[in-house]
């Protein structure tokens, strides 16, 4: 199997990683309180999921 002649320098490795993890994770908007929340999860702000209150949120 072909092998690389020389390993990439740490500068070259770091340069490759500069474009990594630039986008934020996907967030959806809660239809109840219009806060940003993770999709398919109960809203941590108001405790609603699919139009029903699933969890009491302490303030
Ligand atoms: Zn909400």
Overview of this protein structure:
There is one protein chain. By secondary structure, the chain is of the alpha+beta class. It has a domain at 25-59. Helix content is 14%, strand content 14%. The protein is built from one helix and four strands; from the N terminus they run αββββ. The chain has one helix at 10-17, and strands at residues 28-29, 36-37, 48-49, 52-53. A hairpin with a 6-residue loop joins strand 1 and strand 2. The model has no long low-confidence stretch (mean pLDDT 84). It binds zinc ion.
List keywords for this structure.
single chain, binds zinc ion, two-stranded antiparallel sheet, about 60 residues, rod-shaped, alpha+beta
Strand tally:
4
**Spatial arrangement of strands, main beta sheet:** 1-2
The major sheet is characterized as: 2 strands, antiparallel
Shape: rod-shaped
- How much is the radius of gyration in Å? 22 Å
SSE order and pairing:
Layout: H1 10-17, E1 28-29, E2 36-37, E3 48-49, E4 52-53
Antiparallel strand pairs: 1-2, 3-4
The structure holds zinc ion (ZN).
The site of zinc ion has 8 residues, from loops.
A few lines on this structure:
With 59 residues, this protein is α+β, with helices and mostly antiparallel strands. The protein is built from one helix and four strands.
